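Let's see one such:

===
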Amino acid sequence: MLLEGSCNLDQNQNEPNEDIRYDWNLVLEESDKPQQQLHFENTRTVTFVAPYVSFDPGRSDNKTYSCLVFKVVATDKDTNLKSESSFVTVIVKMIHRALVLQGGGSLGAYEVGVYKALCEQLTEQDKKNNVRHNRPLFDIVAGTSIGAVNAALIVHSVKHSNIIKVNDNNLEGIPEDVWKKSVRELERFWDEITFPISVFENQAFQMWWNLLHYNTSNFHEMLRYYDETFKKYSCIPSKVDPEFNLWNPFYLFTRQDMYTPSADAETARRYFSWLYFPYLFPNRIITPNFLQPDSKFFTHIPQFARFDNSFLAKAIKEKGFWDSEKDPIKTNFQNGEPRLLVVAVDVLDATSPVTFDSYMCCSRYKDGRNSSIHPTDDDGGGGKIESEHIIQYQDGITIKHISASMSPHNVIEYPSLEDEQGEGNTKRYFWDGAYLSNTPLRELLHLHRYYWYSIHNGEDNKNNNELIRTAEQNENNTSAIATHADALDKELYVPHLEVYIVNLYPAVDQEQNTPPQDPDRIQDRELEIRFHDKTTYDVKVAEMITDYLILHGQMKNLAEKYIGVYDENQKMQEFQREYQNLLNGLTHSQERKNNSTYVDGSKHQGDITALRKNQRTYRDLIEGRFDIAKILYINRKEDKNTIFGKAADFSRETMIKSKTQGYRDTYDAFALNGMASESYRILNS
């Protein structure tokens, strides 16, 4: 890390005053691995290696940061006149590693390969950098739909393994062993729910479809050649005007541009495996589609079919992967357990996604249909209090929450959970979270800040004030350290994030140069566009917020610097008072509702009227912020054999190919982006 000193005698902004001497002393260190005594003499700029923020699963008071306080004194070399002691507070924050898993049915096998490669690569990276001892390989695992299933199985495996290791007091090598076991468990799960379908994998099937593909491709090429060469001499129009075929349901059959070559053997295998798989016995995933009668219009236009996906939840329990009734997932940072986030959609109130959280075990989201005005005793006015839905699960996340995340609109029975604050019907019904957030990065960022900013800041601030007082007593000639309690504010305790996102639906079609023509590929591409990763904007906003916060801090330091030139304490106090009043002022924007309840029922310290009216203060905009130190996307690429029903192709061969592709793509992504970002090295040195 780098620190640079300055004083009011530095009149020239371009060149520092060489007649000023700066002496630095480390007077306070809150770190599990103390530094050697840091003392720098006669140097304006100092550099040192910051302490790594370690973790001990045997303790219950682990913190997400280390705190250093330096005393700096400036001396005029000509007159030997010394300045009063100034104190510089340095906070080194922990970086939490997050894994984000998309929804996509059988494409979840791709995530298995990605997860396996990530465990290998990150374990090796951590060993090389000598970091994350006894820390989870991933601090947060978030998922939607099948991503929620994979995430739950990962966290359950890690949680169960961690408990065994800690109880045995065998902490050496925990992360690597635990996460390797979770990889094996996830692979075993996918082996269990997929089947080989030999009828579509034999040579006769392959030869027939390859021959058909070859002949129809040649015929299609002949039609294209005819269009390009002879159509200008023909009296037969190549396309019939649809205006004259309004009553002809077979109109498109008369257009040669609507014909495409037949599928090849691999594409046909995937297609018929998708159609055939629900009829296999014993079924471990889904039933076939059942046509629902149209008793409303009696036309069956469009046809609507429904299916049952409860078999997957039963298989998870019966095959011994997770009995959620006996062992719900409730995790805790102090136990070294990863946080599980699962996203779903309220069918009747899709105002925002609903996120189930294994740390807080309660989800709160705005009731989009109701808001009410209630008078308050404090101001006698009418503060606007919006109604909310509250889903409590104090024992932890169960298979019901996972089912809520993975059930699309055409399942026979919609998953439901009780609303603690509902009026009348207290049940809330849920659909697949992919409809609102197939890549739950935004929910992860929001809940990450909320948990560490709103829940942990109170106790940490109390402890830091004690440390400040201790350092003050040790120096016993100054009270200046106490003024640096401001620097140890809530904003400093939200850990930075390192994020890995698995994108199952590609935004870019790299196999085609023209729009799709055949019905299967048209529908397939529509799904890709609907469910592909859309978090680029969220990342840009996060980066812009960081830039604005840096600018805010630099402008504040600049103002203090030039006020200090005149050495007017009264002016500085007036500036600080007006600055704090500004931070407590109300913004024009409406505060976004939390997706999780306040565990202790408390609210943010500050203007109670603003809280009552659900408005932000300017302080809310600058406190509790964190950086995305690194983000890596692992993007699944489509091949020429893609089909519309790829999310329901649970054949063993497709699963193995998807898993292998995910494994290779992850290694390619690491090779392209490097093993570790510079920001990671700086913050965790």
